[in-house]
Each structure stands twice: as C-alpha cells, then as structure tokens.
Design a protein that fits this description.
599 residues, alpha+beta, 15-stranded antiparallel sheet, three-stranded antiparallel sheet, 22% strand, globular
Length: 599
C-alpha cells in the first residue's frame, strides 16, 4: 500500500533532503543537491525505482517516531514480540560529500532486522554496477558513485538488483549503516564515523535552535517549522527551496504535478519576516544576498523563480518511466512557469529589501540602485496583464494581487526615501505611480455589490491572494472593503479552517483540468486577516485547527484534501511553514520574543 504523503518525515544536510516513511523506507533522495537526479524515487513510482528500507523482519509500520529534541535527527521506534529497537536517521552537515546515516539501536530484548537498498540513479531509471571493495559495497553508473558500509560489519548479499542485509540487535547494541555519494571520477571521500557524526549533528541543531528568540505558547510548532525552513536552505548560496520534492499531486490522479525544488521570489518577504522575527539574522542575510544575486540584470527579465544558485534556465520535461504518486502523472522535472510574467514579484523584492534594511541587516551598496532599476521598469509594466501569483497556464489577466504588489513596490520606495533622504530617487514620481495603481485597483478590482476585491479586473471570481492586501497597508484593516473581502473569501473559498486558492469548478482560469486541495498557506493568511481586522478569537481558533493538520512529526505539505482528510502536494512545503510561523508570532505578540522585537 502506498504511504500517504503525511506518512513521511524529513532529514537533510542543508544541501539536499530525504523522505523517510513510517515503514522505515527512504523513498526520496536527490544527490548531491536538492535539484539533482534522485537515487531513491519510489515516492513517484515503486520500489524498483529506488528505495532503502530498514525494519524488523516481518514488520509493516513503526510503533511511533519523533525528532530528537529540536533537531532534524529522526528516531523511529519499533516494538515487536521479541523486543524494541530504534532506528536513527540523519544526514550530517557535509565536509565533502553527502552521507545518509542509519543507526539501529537495541532498546530491549532481541530483534531480527533486515535492510534492503535499491540504488537507481537518474530518477529511478539507471541500475548501477555494484561490486565489493575494501569490505564495502560500491555502486557506479555514469557520473554517480555511492559507497555502502556498516559498523560493525553485517552479512550483506546481492539479490534481484538490490543489496540486502540481515542482522540481530539486542539491548544496548548499535549497528550503523552509511551511504556516501561522490562523483564517480573522484576518489572515495574519507570515512566519517557515524556515531561521532550523530553527536555532532545533535549538537549543531541544539546550538542553532537555541538562537530562536520566540518563547510563546506555540514554540514547539514554530521551532519545528523553522527547523524545516533551515532544512530547505541550500547552505552554499542561502537560497531556500519551496519543497524538496517534485510532482507530488495537488489532486490524486490529477495532472497538477510540479517541480518545487527551486527558489521562488514570491516567498521572499514572508520568509525574511519569519527569519528576522525569530532572530535568525544570519539566515535572513544569506537569503537577502541570494535574492540580490538572483535578480541582478535587466529588470524586464526578472523571473518568478531561480535555481539554487540563481540559475535562470529550468527547462521542464516529463519522466514517463515513473508512474507518479498514486498514479498521478505526469512526473515533471524543471518548471516552465519560470518564463511567466508575474508582476507581483517586483513588489515582493522591494518589500523584502525594505524589510532587510529596517531589520538592520548590513546594507549592500548596489541594492538601492537595483531597486530603482526595477521600479523604472514597473512604472509602465504594471498596467499590463500577467499570469499572477498562482502561475496560471491560461490567458493572462489583470490580477488584483499583482496590481496591489505593484502599489507595494512604489509605496516601499516612497517610504525608503522618506526615511533616507540622502538616497537617490524621486519620491514624488513614485507617489504618483502609487496613487495611480491604488485608484485603478479600487475602480476596476473591487465589486461594490458584493463588497469584495475580486481575482482580476471584470471578474466575479474570488482569490485567496486578496487576503494579503490587509497586511500591505493598501487600505486600513478596519476599512469596510477589507472586512468584506475577508468575509467573502472565507464564505466562498473556505471550508472550516481551510481555504482554496480560487475556484476551479467550471472555470478555465488556470488552463488545467481537474481540481486541487485547500491551500494551507492561504488558510494561515485567513487567520492573519481575521486578526488584523479585529477578530483575534476567531483567528486563534482557526490557527489551532490548522496546527492539528500537521503530521505526527509536525510537517505540512502544500495542500489538504478535505474529503480524503489527507495532505496533498509537494512536501514539506516552505510556504506552509512560513505561514505557520508568521501566524503564531502575530497571535502571540511581541512580548513573546526575547528582548522584544527582533528587528
């Protein structure tokens, strides 16, 4: 039976990540980077596409699991008829090449264990040549090589293009397995002691977690979300991927399956806000610096997403040999939306850099000139239609959210110049633009009969993105138009604590067949909007319901299937966890931060 998306837990080394199921199987891992080919791709196919399972002989699912404290070290417990074991899964921050380590520890009694590893490079399609060398197993295929060893050594044999092991652990005994990847043309990296690596990994995470300034009532949930965001950070550049997976479906059996192993500009402001508020200024500065490098160049060529190091070409293709998660095909790598026009990203970049400056991050001399260049392009471009925040693959439209974010871009420029009059720039020019955008949105993007902002000019459809208007300063929170918009979105797109992005019923707005689940980030936006419009009790109740949707180790996917009562979409999703952190901090207030505000 295919595990549900929420049956997985995340481990990683800040350059890539793996998903481990409740059945003890690693079903997804891309090496050496988030955006590399997967060597375990059973998540999107079957066991023949690569996996690594360690479990008691004959067991189906673990008894319980947890992360060790505030870390990314996963502890999975199995209680059997003959005894209890713990499997510790982690990836230490690498010195050279990535290591996946799995330590089996006897807790009580005696337990017979099995390990089956099927390495399949290039997304499950390449079966490597496996041989013995220096007492280890080494797998080689083209550019990829992986070494498998155990400490102490256990019996290992080849069977049906897999490497199998059988061993017994008793109380207090530990057996460690280490899988190390490296380029096949390079010599094998130096061996890393797995038991020492475990201690250093736990110490690293404990030290990092202690830096968190938040001490409010939701600290456990906030800390787990911050750890997840850290895990989705590509340490060499500071970029943060939207998710470590591709093609987990927004509808089971549907075609809305996208590659999220890249960095989106739409996440920038909310990500910076979460990191800065929690006291993680080093990570915020790294993300800001990634942002500046990525968007440098012709402002007309600003993209909505980039690669881990700011790569611009992310060509989309399909992998027909993978059947897709629960037969949800196609499986895609790359993302064609990279070439879309989304005008909201200009506002998000401007707001992010304004936030970084006000938080006291060291200013970059070229940052303001870059912002002026972006504004110069947006001054005329904001009047054009675009594909909008949700990356529709249908006809371009005048999306209200895009226009409001153009207003944000001009507004943040005006605010910056008012606070820093020595900076170059014409504040009156940007005030004129700001006023023009505001006037047009209120005239063309608002439905006075229903008292709500709409998805696009001339449309009756609603869009959860309009919930973000209240936090931009476009209108005061107590403005009747804002309250009406919040109520309309909740009534028409909401179901309990959950909110859909927009209606897909009988609409061709996004150019795609089928439907999708409720979007979790939008659900947190609703809680934020309720709080800002004076309904704190409702916001708190909604937030508590959303917290209950996390899986057993505190993780959230992109969406939630209301009817099926299950998570959907790529997992874990940065946007969902950013929303959780932001709402928790807003509900708790500034007095829950050590030393007051983080900025």
């Amino acid at each position: 039976m295919t595990p549900r998306i929420e049956d997985y837990a995340l481990i990683g080394d800040l350059q890539t990540a793996a998903l481990v199921g409740r059945n003890g199987s690693v079903d997804w891992l891309c090496l050496p980077r988030f955006d590399s080919g997967a060597c375990f791709a059973a998540l999107l196919g079957d066991e023949d596409n690569g996996h690594w399972r360690i479990a008691p002989k004959g067991a189906d699912s673990c008894t319980r699991r947890r992360y060790a404290g505030d870390s990314l070290v996963l502890e999975t417990y199995w209680v059997t008829r003959t005894g209890t074991v713990k499997v510790i899964d982690f990836m230490p921050q690498r010195d050279q090449e990535p290591d996946l380590m799995r330590i089996v520890e006897g807790i009580s009694g005696t337990v017979d264990m099995t390990s089956v590893i099927r390495l399949r490079f290039d997304f499950g399609t390449v079966v490597p040549w496996v041989r013995r060398s220096q007492g280890h197993r080494v797998a080689v295929a083209g550019p990829d090589s992986a070494w498998l060893r155990s400490e102490p050594p256990v019996k290992t044999w080849g069977q049906q293009f897999s490497t199998c092991s059988s061993f017994t652990v008793s109380t207090g005994e530990r057996v460690a397995f280490v899988l190390t990847w490296h380029p096949s043309h390079s010599p094998r990296p130096e061996l890393v002691d797995p038991f020492e690596a475990l201690e250093s990994t736990l110490s690293d995470w404990a030290e990092w977690s202690e830096r968190c300034k938040y001490r409010g009532p939701y600290r456990e949930a906030v800390m787990r979300s911050l750890i997840t965001l850290k895990a989705l950070t590509f340490a060499p550049t500071g970029g943060i991927v939207a998710a470590p997976t591709t093609s987990l479906p927004e509808e089971i059996g549907g075609v809305r399956n996208w590659d999220y192993r890249y960095c989106w500009l739409r996440d920038s402001t909310l990500t910076l806000d979460a990191l800065i508020s929690a006291g993680y200024l080093e990570e915020a500065a790294a993300w800001r610096d990634w942002l500046l490098r990525a968007v440098a160049g012709d402002p007309a060529d600003l993209q909505i997403m980039y690669g881990l190091a700011g790569e611009r070409r992310l060509p989309e293709s399909e992998l027909p040999w993978l059947s897709g998660y629960e037969n949800s095909s196609p499986v895609r790598i790359g993302n064609a939306a990279v070439r879309q026009r989304q005008l909201d990203v200009y506002g998000e970049v401007m707001d992010s850099l304004r936030l970084a400056r006000e938080a006291g991050l060291d200013d970059k001399p070229h940052a303001w000139n870059l912002q002026l260049s972006l504004l110069g392009f947006l001054e005329s471009a904001w009047r054009e239609p675009d594909e909008g925040l949700w990356e529709i693959r249908g006809q371009r439209r005048h999306f209200v959210h895009s226009k409001v974010m153009a207003w944000v871009a001009a507004d943040r420029a005006v605010r910056t110049l008012e606070k820093n009059p020595a900076l170059a720039g014409d504040a009156d020019r940007w005030r004129t633009m700001r006023d023009a955008v505001h006037r047009e949105v209120c005239e063309k993007g608002f439905d006075p009969v229903r008292n709500t902002f709409t998805q696009s000019y001339g449309s009756r459809n609603l869009d959860a993105a309009t919930l973000l208007i209240v936090r931009t300063g476009f209108l005061p929170p107590d403005d009747p138009r804002m309250i009406g918009t919040v109520d309309a979105v909740r009534d028409e797109l909401g179901s309990g604590c959950l909110v859909r992005r927009y209606s897909t019923d009988g609409s061709s707005i996004d150019g795609l067949p089928g439907s999708e689940g409720a979007f979790l980030a939008c659900s947190f936006w609703l809680a934020d909007a309720l709080l800002l419009t004076g309904r704190a009790k409702e916001a708190g109740e909604l937030f508590e319901q959303l917290l209950a949707l996390r899986n057993d180790v505190g993780l959230l996917a992109e969406e939630y299937d209301i009817a099926g009562r299950r998570q959907l979409g790529n997992f874990p999703q940065a946007f969902s966890h950013i929303g959780l952190v932001g709402t928790a901090m807003a509900l708790a207030g500034e007095d829950t931060l050590e030393g007051g505000t983080a900025g």
